[in-house]
Amino acid sequence: MGNFTKWLGAGLGFTLGGPIGAIIGYAIGSVIDSGVSVQEYKSEQDDYKRKTKKRPKVKSSTSGDFEISLLVLASIVIKSDGNIDQRELDFVRSHFIELYGKERANRAFKLFNGVIKNEVSTRQVCIQIREHMSHSSRLQLIHFLFGIAKADEVVTASEEEVIRKIAGYLYINDRDYGSIKAMFYNEADAAYKILEIEKDASIDEIKKAYRRMAKKFHPDRLQDIGEEHLNAAKEKFQSIQNAYEKLKEERNF
Question: Where is the J domain (predicted)?
Answer without folding.
Answer: 190-252
